[in-house]
Design a protein that fits this description.
The protein is of the alpha/beta class. The protein contains nine helices and 13 strands. The strands form three sheets. A five-stranded mixed β-sheet has the order 5-1-6-13-7. A five-stranded mixed β-sheet has the order 10-9-11-8-12. Helix 6 packs parallel to helix 8.
Length: 351
């Protein structure tokens, strides 16, 4: 009997404690809401699943890549610049999307990485009419790229400036490999016109200045950009009529779930951005100025008298296994994404 009484008293006491404890918390008239990171429901674009992008590596102002080392672990990482990158950054900022740059050595590697899912979006490429290609395009393309014929300025002020293939017959010229325009123009080159591919704007300008090449076929926009860098504008002329004006697109692999999930909003954004010509020209101008300022203290190319050893920026290191490299980089990017996600999540954990 005493035991039953004892347990009854304990039960009453426990109920009283709970009652008064709950009463002490108070009643909330309004519904409470936690901050939820809705980006976690996205296929990509969240901190733990960022969009992986790459761009042109050495084609300013459309795109270029710079490699840095992290202070903590000395691991190299890439940052891309240029018109395509800036357009994508503005899209990402508008929709609060996270992204990472994939560090590729050349355009072929980017396309390979794109086709194997290591890259979600390539921020600069030309349209490929190959029906067997699995590459898809975000429409519209974001800029037309007029291709022109550049020659050394003649002492004769009345000398005609070549503007057509007919004007180049019997001459030897060059194209820059990194521009990737050779395949676009190959079928149009007359049999009596010689054209070779060279690496880099510097090498191309040197060959013209030393009269080792008669002409350079290049992007007018890229020429104007590199001419400022090398300070050689007074030595060249070019025809005002382009021989072709291909459009630059952003591309993705057709079965890439991340790119497909972004397609609608991204194309809507590109349509709106490219319709604003002043916006595109403003971004383009800012990239040209940024590139020029990087070399503001550099002397004119005319002061360089010796040839530099040729490098092939379009070729990977022969001893490097591409799949292993891409897997290792993906592993590192995944770790970075996890760290970034943890940091971002910590902001929502202080409830």
């Amino acid at each position: 009997m005493k035991k039953k009484f004892f347990w009854a008293v304990c039960a009453i006491f426990a109920i009283a404690v709970v009652f008064f404890t709950l009463d002490a918390v108070g009643y909330e008239e309004k519904t409470l809401h936690r901050i939820v990171d809705k980006k976690r429901n996205l296929i990509c674009g969240s901190s733990e699943k960022p969009i992986r992008v790459a761009g042109y590596m050495n084609y300013p102002p459309f795109g270029w890549k710079e490699v840095y080392e992290r202070k903590l672990d000395a691991i190299p990482y890439a940052i891309y610049y240029g018109l395509g990158v800036e357009l994508f950054k503005r899209f990402a900022e508008k929709y609060d999307l996270r992204y990472q740059y994939v560090n590729a050595f050349n355009h072929e590697e980017v396309q390979y990485a794109l086709s194997h899912g290591y890259v979600d979006i390539l921020l600069g490429d030309y349209y490929n009419a190959n029906s067997y290609s699995s590459m898809k395009y975000f429409y519209p393309g974001y800029i037309a790229n007029p291709l022109i014929i550049v020659t050394l300025k003649s002492d004769d002020e009345n000398a005609p400036i070549p503007e057509t293939w007919e004007d180049l017959k019997g001459k030897k010229g060059i194209m820059r490999s990194e521009e990737r325009i050779f395949d676009l123009l190959y079928s149009k080159i007359p049999s009596d016109v010689q054209v070779e591919k060279v690496e880099g704007a510097k090498r191309a300008f040197q060959l013209l200045l030393r009269k080792e090449a008669d002409f350079l076929i290049t992007s007018q926009i890229a020429y104007e950009t590199e001419m400022r860098r090398f300070k050689v504008g007074d030595y060249f002329v070019y025809g005002k009529k382009p021989i072709m004006s291909p459009v630059i697109f952003m591309t993705y692999q057709g079965n890439n779930p991340c790119a497909n999930s972004l397609k609608g909003k991204f194309e809507e954004y590109l349509k709106e951005a490219t319709a604003d010509k002043s916006l595109v020209l403003s971004i383009l101008s800012s990239q040209i100025i940024e590139w020029e300022n990087k070399f503001i203290k550099q002397k004119s190319l005319m002061f360089e008298t010796e040839n530099e050893p040729e490098t092939n920026e379009e070729n990977s290191k022969k001893d490097m296994a591409l799949d292993e490299y891409l897997k290792e980089q993906k592993k590192q990017l995944d770790l970075d994404a996890i760290r970034n996600s943890a940091v971002e999540s910590a902001r929502f954990s202080n409830f």
